[in-house]
Write a structure and sequence with these properties.
The chain is mainly alpha-helical and about 350 residues long. Helices cover about 75% and strands about 0% of the residues.
Length: about 350
């Protein structure tokens, strides 16, 4: 019941944010923007979109190959299974937010006969890498978009920061730090006991997480990471060309990177597939920082989000077919693989 309520609230939040995103938009002008788009740019946009996940599957495979059980048997992961799992996870996330990541873990764990906790550790490491790149991305906004961000900072964030360093704000941070400290102490206490299922799960998770740093193929890891984010940036650039944004302002790779980094804030809002949250953030960024009309901004958000949703769902279903799975069979992947009693 609690889980169903969570999903219901997630869908409700998506509807509310979508209404806010479309508020005050002239649908006549929005239609004109969509009608006059150069859809020949849709092909390159979809191509780099797919390539970005091919590069992500490559990076993930490098980590999976370094898991203890894979090294013990001197075997390597079949590339297609991580790739299929990524596409399937995105498809699931459009219906059940965050569940796709668990399906992704379980799919590869079962197909490759790897520990669930170990594969989970690699996925957490994969996402941690994304967070670190985005932190660098937000730092890059200082030299790349300081003029655009200054007015926004003074309007929106200055009051928030003032509160954060006030007495109430400092009390909030102290309580938060205390809660994290208690949680960390409890985890260490259970781990130090060295017994029970939790210890084995933690051991597998830790092995998967550190595989990001311990894999001997660090150059390939770096190259794949650069290619992932370069593909994302080119996807934004080609989408801008599709909607003639370069006719409104001088739009280039730098602007595409800035919008990509700001748009990543969508992942912090738990709506299905970023519906509503993506549209609100993109509209706010494009109107506030570049001065686009509401209609141009929403047209960009609709086209890019719809393209991703259609492509990911198509590739997700194809991946399901190639794996010989069904939609209902996906949820067996949320259950860790039991050890083989004969081994």
């Amino acid at each position: 019941m609690r889980q169903k309520l969570t999903y219901l609230l997630s869908f409700a939040l998506a509807v509310v944010l979508m209404v806010l995103a479309l508020r005050g938009v002239s649908f006549e002008q929005l239609w004109i923007s969509l009608r006059d788009a150069e859809y020949r740019w849709l092909g390159p946009t979809v191509l780099v979109m797919v390539l970005s996940h091919w590069f992500r599957a490559w990076r993930w495979k490098l980590m999976l190959d370094h898991l203890p059980e894979a090294r013990a048997e001197s075997r390597v992961t079949t590339f297609r299974f991580p790739l299929y799992a990524i596409f399937i996870s995105y498809m699931v996330n459009y219906v059940l937010p965050r569940v796709g990541e668990i399906v992704r873990v379980g799919s590869v764990a079962r197909k490759e006969r790897l520990s669930f906790s170990g594969v989970l550790g690699t996925v957490v490491a994969d996402r941690t890498s994304d967070v670190l790149v985005l932190l660098l991305g937000f730092l890059s906004l200082i030299p790349l978009a300081h003029d655009k961000l200054l007015a926004t900072y003074l309007r929106y964030f200055s009051p928030l920061i003032s509160w954060a360093v006030s007495g109430y704000g400092l009390l909030f941070w102290a309580i938060l730090a205390f809660c994290f400290g208690i949680a960390f102490w409890m985890v260490r206490r259970y781990v130090r006991k060295g017994e029970g299922r939790f210890f084995h799960i933690w051991k597998g998770f830790k092995a998967g997480f550190v595989s990001y740093l311990q894999t001997p193929k660090q150059i390939q890891m770096l190259v794949s990471t650069v290619l992932i984010w370069a593909s994302y940036t080119m996807m934004v650039l080609f989408s801008a060309y599709l909607l003639h944004l370069d006719d409104v302002v001088s739009w280039g790779v730098q602007d595409s990177w800035v919008l990509l980094v700001i748009g990543s804030l969508t992942s912090m809002i738990p709506t299905p597939g970023g519906v509503g949250s993506y549209h609100v953030i993109i509209r706010w960024a494009m109107v506030s920082l570049w001065g686009f009309s509401d209609e141009n901004a929403i047209a960009f958000a609709i086209v890019t989000h719809a393209a991703q949703m259609i492509v990911y769902n198509i590739l997700g279903f194809i991946s399901l077919f190639l794996q010989g799975e069904t939609i209902f069979g996906l949820f067996q992947y949320t259950t860790p693989l039991k050890p083989d009693p004969t081994s």
